[in-house]
Amino acid sequence: MKIxxxxxxxxxxxxxxxxxxxxxxxxxxxxxxxxxxKSTLFDAIQALFFKPYGSRDKDVAALRPHAGGAPxxxxxxxxxxxxxxxxxxxxxxxxxxxxxxxxxIAQADEAEAWIAQLLGGDAGGPSGLIWxxxxxxxLNGGSTKEEKxxxxxxxxxxxxxxxxxxAMTGGRRMDKALAQCREELANYTTSTGRxxxxxxxxxxxxxxxxxxxxxxxxxxxxxxxxxxxAERQRARRALAELEAPEVVEARRRKLETARAAHxxxxxxxxxxxxxxxxxxxxxxxxxxxxxxxxxxxxxxTEQKTAMFDEALARKATExxxxxxxxxRAALEAxxxxxxxARTALQSAEDQRRSALRALAxxxxxxxxxxxxxxxxxxxxxxxxxxTAAAAAQSGPxxxxxxxxxxxxxxxxxxxxxRDATATQVIMRYxxxxxxxxxxxxxxxxxxxxxxxxxxxxxxxxxxxxxxxxPGAGGQEDGTVEAAAARLQTALxxxxxxxxxxxxxxxxxxxxxxxxxxxAKAVLASLAPDGxxxxxxxxxxxPTPAEEAETPDLEAAEATLQSAQDQxxxxxxxxxxxxxxLADAKADAxxxxxxxxxxxxxxxxxxxxxxxxxxxSEEALASQTxxxxAALEAxxxxxxEKAKSAPDAASLQAAxxxxxxxxxxxxxxxxxxxxxxxxxxxxxxxxxxxxxxERLAETQEQLQAAEAKLTRIVHEVAVLTRLETAxxxxxxxxxxxxxxxxxxxxxxxxxxxxxxxxxTWGEESLLPHALIRGGREEPIDVLSGGTQEQVALLxxxxxxRMLARAGRIAPVILDDALVFTDDDRIERMFDAxxxxxGDMQIIVLTCRQRAFRALGGQALRLQPVGE
Length: 866
Fold this sequence. Notes:
This protein is an alpha+beta fold.
């Protein structure tokens, strides 16, 4: 079926008949502004094919105009059997007819049946698949009824091309088997595969865990009982060994023997220590006597040496003091001579400077006159440059003048274009009547065309006035006024009355700029570093002064040379005297310091001699011999006593070991007695609980519970494996089920996204997600533009499938691309042209500029007969 023409009457705003004709094969585009009736046209098509002529529901009522009336829709369709005209009217005198070549072939209910047969018997038909209402670009929009009809249409279309739908995807045997399997599995597990609380699997697991815990507890209790029996036997044997009388007596004897030996060793060690102290005292006495003798001899030698050295240092110090006085007097005399030489040098320098100033003043008079003239010329050049710069700032520049010329040309072109299409008046005067007719600008010239773009009045001398009103085609569109306004705005901006004035101002500005450049070049040649630099050079030239007596420069320089030589000689003499004084000061300071040091040394030697008192060297030598003999005697006594000393460390170790053995035996006995009591009590208590019998009984129950749990686990595994196998089989069938639509969509998707794929929902039979770059993106999270692009491509694929199934229907799209950007809309146009090869596509859009690139047959919705 293909639509060739559509006529509306009394449908919403179309109270008079309106029609769309010339609808051809391929792409047809009705591009009109908003509120032009595109959506009304779409709803009228829907109503004719899917609303019975006797219906009065809200969709049909929405077609009535505000003034009331009976909506009428006529559509001319073409099928393999020829062309037919289908007509419906609702409300007043409702009617449905089908004509062929002007002959009525069906009406009323038979016409409805003919329309249903034309659509293939579908309730939703193409409306649910390939007819897109404005604002319903998604695949799953509309009311609940519309969604249900669309789903049925998709299911019917998919079923007609899938051989296994009835057996595997329609909820038949496979769904029944899968549901029964899942029901039995739900008795055991949750949706995540875990044991369900209160189910047999969970109860068996809990029972096994409880028995295993009881078994482990009994095993632990039995092990503790056996350990307690073994430990009590070991404790009894150890306690008997420790408390045996012979063992107790042996420990006592060993302890007493060790204590006696240790006491004897302690007394002997004390005696050896006393003799050692006596040896130390004798050594100290001998060392003290020897030190006193050595000190006496050293002090006496030091006193003699210090007295001799102090006398020599005193003589050297007196000599250094005398030399220091002489050199200080010589430095004072040199200072006086140097001061006199400095005064003479300063006087000679002043005379030379006076002579130089007089010479410079004589030589700089000519340079001063030249610089003053140069400064005057430079200041005049700067004045001319500043005057020209000020003049160069007024008037339009080259860019502004070029814009004025362009605007003037545009104004002339606009006037020429206006005059070319405007009404023209040409006056040809009779002899002697020239100038008798006057227009707005003066008398009309003979034989010259006068354009009249708007109404005008011509005054005729002696007769009256003539009003001329051009027709609608000659009305002025305001282009000339707009061009004149732009030119006047530009002239006002530069302060010119007209273009001639602007040109003169621009020429004056250019001439001033040229004068500015010339003056700037002159100034740069006269004062490359600026006029201030010339003033500074002039100020540097000395002004000639009138002096009473100007000294001779040659005599002044000779006097200066002599004064400089004398000053240098005095300076060298003073420096020599100062160096000599510094050396004398250093020698005197060194002599003074050495004398003070030797005097202090002599005083210390005398004080040391006084400390020794009235003692002789012979007495000190005799005391040294006596203390040395006493030291030797003490050493012999200590060595004899130490020879027979017992091994104190060994005896201490033996005593420590004997005490440790006794202490350990007492501690172990104290530990074993309460331990035996506790073990006996524990054994008595545990033996009355029949632990072994309870353990055997629990192990038998655990084996039975584990066997039951194993059976349940095996059954759950079987059911899980069965569910997976059934699901895989159904998925495989569903894959084959969606193969036709996937095959149709693949080339269309590649126009937008190379290597992209769509996954399909099993229940909705609609795309579920878009896979791009290996990443799956759900349809509902995609942008609005991408969602409408996917929806349109899917509808084009459905249209191709309908055509392959022998149910050709036109694709009708009412503003189906609302959010698509400029780049992708071009590729969507390519997809439409790809599918329009043997199909009819009708596009309704208000995006006139964007859809110019679509191409196709252009349609118009216009009054009948226009």
